[in-house]
Amino acid sequence: MEPATYLLDAMARMHHAVFQIGTDRLRPWGITLSSYAALRALDRRPDLTLGQLARRCFVKPQTMTRMVS
Q1: 20 and 42: one domain?
Q2: pLDDT at 1 over 80
Q3: Which domain holds residue 65?
Q4: How many domains is the chain built from?
Q5: How far is CA 56 from each of CA 4, 6, 21, 35, 41, rounded to the nearest angstrom?
Q6: What is the per-residue pLDDT for 36?
């Protein structure tokens, strides 16, 4: 395998681990990692549009609309 392939594999495993840890820690409050990211973004910039908020949280605008509702 090429070094770049090893790096990509390691990054994918790290992403999965971070996502899992975040999900586990937020479960008691009934929110997702995406919802937490949205709350953090709105805390810093309460004037964001739904489209801007969706881009910052790496979700589609339709998903953000459902999350905010």
Answers
A1: no
A2: no
A3: 31-69
A4: 2
A5: 27, 28, 20, 12, 7
A6: 92
Q: Give yes or no: residues 8 and 36 share one domain.
A: no
DSSP 57: T
Give residue 68's pLDDT. 86
Q: For residue 42, what pLDDT is reported?
A: 95
pLDDT digits (tens, 9 = 90+) for 22-43: 999 999 999 988 899 999 999 9
Q: What is the pLDDT of residue 20?
A: 95
Same domain, 25 and 38: no
Cα separation values, 7 from 14, 16, 19, 27, Å: 10, 14, 18, 30
15 and 46 both lie in a single domain: no
Residues 6+ apart with CB under 8 A from 37: 56, 57, 58
Residue 23, number of CB atoms within 10 A of its CB: 13
